[in-house]
Specification:
The complex is a heterodimer of chains A (about 325) and B (about 290). With about 325 residues, chain A is an alpha/beta fold. Chain A contains 13 helices and 14 strands. In chain A, helix 3 packs across helix 4 and helix 8 (about 220-225) packs across helix 11. Chain B is mainly alpha-helical. Chain B has one domain (about 35-285). Chain B contains eleven helices and two strands. The chains are: A alpha/beta (about 325), B mainly alpha (about 290).
Chain lengths: ~325, ~290
Amino acid sequence: MPLVVLQNLVKSYGPIKALSNLSLEIPQGSFFGLLGPNGSGKSTTLRILCTLLEPDSGEVLVNGENALKNPRNIRSKIGYVAQEVAIDKILTGRELLQLHGDLYHLRKEYREQRIKNLIENLEMNDWIDRRSGSYSGGMRRRLDLATGLMHEPDLLVLDEPTVGLDIESRATIWSLLKELNKGGKTILLSSHYLEEVDELSDQMAIIDAGRVIAQGTPDELKKNLGCNRVTLKVREFSNEIEGEKVKELIKKLDGLHNVVVNRAQGYSLNFFVDTSDTLPILRSQLNEQGFEIFAISESRPTLDDVYLQSTGKTLMDAELEVANKRDLKKEAKQSMR
Amino acid sequence: MSKTFSPSSSGFSLENNKLEFLEIRQEVFALTRRLFLQLYRRPSTLVAGILQPLIWLVLFGALFENAPSNLLPGGIVYGKFLGAGIIVFTAFSGALNAGLPVMFDREFGFLNRLLVAPLRSRSSIVIASVIYIATLSILQSFVIMGAAFSLGYGFPNFYGVLLVLITLLILVFGVTALSLGLAFVLPGHIELIAVIFVANLPLLFASTALVPISFMPPWLGWLAALNPLTFAIEPIRAAYSGSLDLGSVLIHAPYGEVTGYGCLLILTILTAGLFIAIRPLLNRKLT
């Protein structure tokens, strides 16, 4: 039986539909990555699972127990590390952990033992008795992780745990999470970083506009695409007109699809080819039309390609698009509950 | 949670009740400890909360020092009259601010930490605030009473002090409930501060804190006689007068006369009403 079952979740914020029929299953012991652009409904999904939000309709089962009917039972099984790291700046890290232990009704000796272990495992000894207002981003995130682990939950839920962290802190968090998962802890993590989900998770789902659009292991998803990604540059720095012209030209070729002009890469062209045989034909076609080829490279597909294939846009484009549509004020109100 | 009481299961349910009580105590203690740690490390609220009423007492006392002696009923000194008003006003303003920490917790997302935790009862959040504010108010009141004493305005006897405490607690419970209710309903701290700002001084002026009803124009007398603060001020004033008879008439209101018992009864009803009124808010926001 999967540890978590989300069934047909629907949630709207006013006129904006955050989740439309989202269903997910999270197997026991898995490291589950939830990948999607900002505003795709990741946070909403996690907040519903952690009983902070009620869905308009749908079911949430944790260990077979209905989370909407018995939220209190579910709460003690989940450790939730929210996206916005809210820390009482005037308390020390240790005091925050003690508060958490008491809110989860740990006995005092056990609570202190847990705190000791966590300080050791997360290497917080040097600063845990300082007021948390003085902590760096990485320290805060580690402390937050510790609060989520305090009561030894069955499931650790992390909402974008490394956003805004420097590379070193991110690596620390990554290795901590890997170790936890190796020790048997089920972890659900949301992220809009492809490499994060690719690196950490053994199961993943891509969500877009409040729906699951692809699900499986990262390797499966990439292999299932059954094609390679190609980046083509006709000049080192091209322009939009030229890019579009080349796009029109190569779109007509067989065995080649999803052509995108990538503005961020000097108007290079990104597309998929079913087999490598397409490339020589492409070369000769372009030469005929008077285009020189500055660079052409073929690579295995990435998760971004999986996303592109299912939605017709890149993760980056999706984020920009959604950023304009969101009613952040309304969402803040909801999250303030 | 339904509590069935059948003889066969009573042993179990007693155990269960005990566990529930212990867990609620643990929650409340932890949440209260947090509030007091904040106060201890950031004592400016307490310092300001004590300084402000002292300044009121000294300045307002001096302002009306030369008032004709027949101004006040019984011809008492104005400072002595004012003391009760300042005590109540201080407790009232303190309790009115009770919602602010909760509002900030909402805004910063800290409240989510509490809401994802398996609290036995989310009322623990309310109880912790009430304990914190009540302790603070009583501390402030004793400082004011001490200051009033050193200014020569007297000190109530033992039963008087008891009456002051009881009256203040009823008032503080009610106003804290009101403020917490607002903290859950209003959209943000700006709105909450606006409400506090607008409510505070008018309620002071439209009460018997500064002058007796007999001194007011009729319309203001009506307001003062309906103002809950008045029902807290008059028993405390009686405690200061030395003649402690709660059965005697303390307020000569336009609509009739209210005894000391009447004052306390009305306050209690108001407080109970406020607690009942905010329950659905807490349930909606806190279940």
